[in-house]
Amino acid sequence: MAAMVESLRPDNMLHNPYEVIPATIYEIVQESPLIRTIRLRPEKPIKFQTGQFIELTIPGIGEGPFTPSSSHFISDVMDVTIMKTGFVTEYVHQAQVGDLVGLRGPFGSRYPIEKFEGKDVVILGGGCGLAPLRSLFTTLLDNVDKYNSITFLAGAKTPKDCIYKAEVTGWRKYDNVKFLRAVDVVPEGEEWDEEVGVVTVLLKKLDIDPTDNPAVVCGPPIMMKYGTLDLLKYGYKEENLYLSMEKKMYCGFGQCRHCVMGHYYACKDGPVFTYAQIKDEEDIWE
Amino acid sequence: MLIKSNDLLAFLHKAVQEKLDGTTDVVLPTSNGNGHTYFGTLQNGQTAVLNSFRTVDPTKILFYLTRERMRPEELAQKKRIILGVKNCDLKALEVMDRALINQEFVDPTYKHWRESSVIVTSDCGAIGPTCHCNLVDGHPFATSGFDLNLSAINDNYVITVGSDKGEALLKLLQKHVTLSQAPETVKQQVENQRKAIQQQLEQQNAAYARSTNYDHMRAVEHELWNDVSKQCIGCGACTHICPTCYCLILNDETKAQKFVKERSYDSCQLSGYARVAGGATPRPEMHKRFRNRYLCKFDFMPHDFGLLGCTGCGRCTDACAGEIDFREVVHVVDKNLATV
Predict the structure, then answer these.
(1) Do B275 and A250 touch (CB under 8 A)?
(2) What pLDDT was estimated at residue A6?
(3) What is the pLDDT of residue B45?
(4) Cross-strand partners of A36
(5) Same domain, yes or no, for B11 and B107?
(6) CB distance B3 to B186 below 8 Å
(7) ipTM associated with this complex
């Protein structure tokens, strides 16, 4: 295992990794018709580092891997943004304030934010892929002066599908922060005065020297693929492109093998990889 | 040391009945009369068979249970003597050890079962039709990694000590049974017997000869994998019975607000194995999943653990409903390795 991978993975496996920490839902924000943020208060604080993920259990139903979407400087509560797309998430969308859920983790690698200091950071994401990016973004905002600039390029299908709407105004108040959005289409009857097109159209608004600056990508597979390729075309180096690979991370710590991508495990070597690390592995975009 | 087989059997009965040294279970291959053996206990009255080839069921089922609650604190305190483990299964346990007890994490129940067991291996006195440990640099007898090893000669077993745990068991044995020193002639008999079985294996598998370098297996054309997997129905029997496969699924069995995870075997051969919410899956085609199993054994596991994931037990071939011979597939793939 490469030394860099190890440094991105904090040592947190000393406990029984199957142990579940109970948590209570104390607030629910319906972000869009298909996406909601549940706010959790775990029985004991869960310290994670931005980019790492947790396994969320709906009691008696099952569990799934999700990346917290809140700042890693907060450990007594945790936001998790979840799209209704499968069996477990269906139940997440039926959950109510006061319900009990379970958390395991945190697992996996983190965004190396210390390497972002003094840099122009670009964050590119779409759909529910904005969830881990909001964690990264708000973590960076907590020390916003450490970074030369932060540009968040966010995509959604339609204006109605845009998430974190309530926070956009606050995010746009910083001098060195840009939060730009694009939607694929604007259906009749919906209002929109920002960009229209797939999220990568926002790259033309970028005025950054890509030589030594980092960019972070997360989103649906097709967006990850073309976002990455477009950033490479823009001039970003493979080793400065950070991807959050979301595979079937069933156990969370490299035992169950469901998320294996050749010589890498998405759960323990990732989910945060540089493009340089995994570009030669098979099926990374699927 | 030398022990009479009847004396050993009598000791094992006594060990369980009188809980000698805290022994709770004796597990060993038992015969059902059809030429095959299965792990069982002495209590059920079946015949113990220590000197045949490997059991139908892999030894992993004694350490990595087919379904198990992940609450190690609720596990029963056991002290098991497991006999008749064959070298292929012992080597498989080494793979499991590296996968499940390492610096990154420790699987709590596997560790529990591993620590509460003494492993007594025994030389293969026969070979099964699918046995092929010789093709993966293995032997039908163990030379290290066991606690005790037994080599059957006539009505006696030659005992070899392989660990402190084994030494302790030998001491216990000596308290209850009179052992004799194994004469040189008997030791020579053991060597001759081992050679004879090894030769049988080499003859049986001569047609499947292959190189031992699998570095470029990934480069073999998908077309070929498509051809060799045509008879595969994707049932997953091969992975369930494989002594080194440990892929798992977790079921949530939470009741009354007490979180409980239950683990059972999963198989990379099943179509839904790596499917994520929303439906995307990296290996929708059968031949890709088929290929994944071979790559896991010959590429991924060596990369992760420094050991081949195949120990040549041949169970996957026995279990295959499509009558696919694992040796034949690797043989064909190997022939193509030379051309990639």
Answers:
(1) no
(2) 40
(3) 66
(4) A30, A82
(5) yes
(6) no
(7) 0.84
